[in-house]
Design a protein that fits this description.
single chain, 138 residues, mainly alpha, two-stranded antiparallel ribbon, 3% strand, globular
Length: 138
Amino acid sequence: MDLKQLETDYMLLKKEIETMKYHMSIMQMMLPDDNKYAFFQYVLTANLSKAEAAKILKVLMKMNAKMKGREFPDEMYMVGDEPVLFDTSLSMEQWGKEFVQYINTLFNGKVNSLYLLKACKMQGMYREVCAMLIEQIE
């Protein structure tokens, strides 16, 4: 394959990606505005990958288990082969601050922790944990 063919293929892929992003933005506008899928809408808006969304949900799952006094093996808090490195041994009063720091570190500031938590809560995901974290952050 020569350089000209590689450039042509690259341009075609770039155009296809741009078209897909445009189509995705149109689909987002078509979704009902009832917050039924608020978290998933945020995942689309923030352009998060499947693994990134899973890390967020695993952190919330880990906090939820701790709040309810449940213990699960560390393997439950893995995304692929990466462990979720959120320390739930801290007092729950510190979780809000630590969650914001964790999310900022994980996503280099591209994810708004407060909006993310509100979206999760609106979608009915880990409501108690989200409510507690929102209260601590606001």
